[in-house]
Amino acid sequence: MVALIVALIVALCGYFVLLGRYAFILMGSGEVAGIGVGIGVLILPFLGVWMVVATIRAALAHQHLARRIHEEGLELDVTQLPRRRSGRIERAAADELFAAVEAEWKADPDNWRVSYRLARAYDYAGDRARARETMRRAVELERHERDNT
Q1: Rounded to whole angstroms, how far apart are CA atoms 97 and 81?
Q2: What is the pTM of this model?
Q3: What secondary structure letter does DSSP report for 103?
């Protein structure tokens, strides 16, 4: 998996270099439209690099939390929950799991471990936006805990 990610990043870097070259060619044309399009094309590699770096940083932070949760034995146990043919957890079971984890979170909202579990419960329930938001909060809380110990 790591080799695939590295290969994709190398391919993206090559793509960004090509975009940069075309941007300078367009800007060197001397035409107003060419210069404008060239500036727009030049911005794309910077946005691409920022997105790749942000995604990798988030993935590493999430993996760090997952490792800690596993080591502490606090993972959500979903092995016994009923599943659809697609492999996803049945909606009613996911909602029941979510309700239980949400109660944990309401009792201790500033605990990164509970926030991590809530993010996973959101994910199992199919609410990806809230899962990402809650996972970001879990990362911040864990980082704060680590910095203060």
Answers
A1: 9
A2: 0.76
A3: H
